[in-house]
Amino acid sequence: MTGLRLAVVLLLAACGTARSEPTKPTSKLPAAEKPPAPTDLRAFIEALRPDALSRGVSPRTFAAAFSGVTTADPDVLARTRRQGEFARPVWEYLVGAVSPGRIARGQAQAARLAPTLAAIEARFGVPRWIVLAFWGVESDFGASAGTVPTVRALATLAQAGFRGTLFRDELLAALAILERGDIAPSGMKGSWAGAMGQVQFLPSSFLAHAVDFDGDGHRDIWGSQADALASIANYLKSLGWNPALSWGYAVTLPPGFDLTAYRADLSDFARRGVRRTDNAPLPSSGNASLFLPGGLGGPVFLITDNFEVVRAYNTSDSYALAVGHLADRLAGGPSLVAPWPSDAARLDKGGLQALQTGLSARKLYAGEADGRAGPKLREAVRRYQIEQGLPADGYATPALLEHLKHRP
Ligand code: CA
C-alpha cells in the first residue's frame, strides 16, 4: 500500500497534475520538447547485480531481464522533466474519465464478464462496479495498458536517481516478478513510470497484491482479465474496503442545510434531509462526510471511509471521485446535474499555496504549502469558514483568499 501510495504522490508531484495519463502510450512528446540524449545504462545494471542476486534473482533471469537494455529511455527521462502548470479541476478530469463512451464500454464488459465479476465479488467483497471503474480509469478496460518496457523504464529512472531510491527498489521488485515467471521480460510493459499492465500496479504492489484468478499459475495483469480484475479487488480488500458501504453517494442538500456539521453518521444525514440523487435510501449506518468539490451550488457527495481506500490507490480527490462516479454510472446511476463552478471561481496552484500559507499563519492548516487541494486543506478551509460565519463548504476560491487577506 505505502509503496504505491508513495509512488503516486511522487508522480503527482512530478507531473503536477492528477494522474490522468499513465495508461496511455508515452512515446509522443510535445514538439517543442527534445528528448535528452540517451545515457549508457550498462554500468548501472552491473552495479545492481549483487543486490538482485542476494534477493534470489538468478543470473539467468537477470540476464534475460536486461537483454537488449543498454541505454536509458529518452522518452522516460523527458517525462520526468515535464512540469505541469497546475492541477486540472475535478470537473475537467471527470469529463475525460467518465465519458459516455467509457460508460458504454464498461457496461459491455460487465455483461461479458458477469460470471467472473460475481466470483470476484464473492471472494473479495468489493462490488463489481468499483472493480470495473478502476479498470476503466487505469487502462480503459485493458485497451491502454501501456507499451513502455518496464525494466528499461525503471532502470532509466533508477539510474537518474529520480525520487531517491524508489525506482531502484521497484526495479528489484520487477526482477523478483520475472524470477517467479509470472510474465516474460518481453511482456512486462506499462507506463513511463513503471506502472504495469491493465491495473497499472508498480512492481512492489504487484508482489503484494496481484492474484492468479484464472488458475493458470501465473499472476498475469497484462493478458488475463480475470487476474487483472481480481488483483484490483484484492488490493482494495487489503486496504480495508468495507463491503457494507459504497465509496460515497451523490446527494442533494435540503434548503438551509447546516454545513458546520459536515461529518456524521449516514443515519444522521438522512434525518437532516440529505437525499441520494438516485432516490435510493442511504445505508442505515456508517461514517460519512460531506464533499463539495466545486463548492456550494455544485455537485454534493457524502463520502465514506471507502473513499479513502480509493484515494490510497491514487492520492488525488479527482481520481477517487472519477472511480466512484464511474462505478455509479456503470451501475445505471444518474449523471451529475448540479453545475460546476466557472474557472474564475477556482484557485490555481499559486493561489492555493497563498491560501495554505495564510491558513497556517492562523494555525488552521498544518501541512505543507504545496498548492495541492486535498482533505487537509479542505478541513482547514472549513474551520476558517466556520470561524468567520461563512458557508462551510470547504471549497477554496479566490474570494476566500481575498477574505483571508483582509482579516487581521
Ligand atoms: Ca493467471
Summarize, please.
The chain has helices at residues 2-15, 42-54, 59-65, 74-81, 90-97, 100-112, 114-124, 128-139, 150-159, 166-180, 203-209, 225-239, 266-271, 305-313, 317-330, 349-361, 375-388, 398-405, and strands at 148-149, 189-190, 248-252, 263-265, 275-276, 287-291, 300-303. The chain is mainly alpha-helical and 408 residues long.
Question: Architecture of the largest domain in CATH?
Answer: Orthogonal Bundle
CATH class of the largest domain: Mainly Alpha
The helix/strand class is: mainly alpha
Low-confidence stretches: 1-32
Largest sheet composition = 5 strands, antiparallel
Instruction: Tally the helices.
Output: 18
Q: Strand sequence of the main sheet, in spatial order?
A: 4-6-7-3-5
How much strand?
5-15%
Mean pLDDT: 90
Distance between the termini: 43 Å
Report the bound ligands by name, code or SMILES: calcium ion
* Element-by-element helix/strand order: HHHHHHHHEHHEHHEEHEEEHHHHH
CATH topology of the largest domain: the name is: Lysozyme
Please tell me how large the radius of gyration is: 22 Å
Domains, number: 3
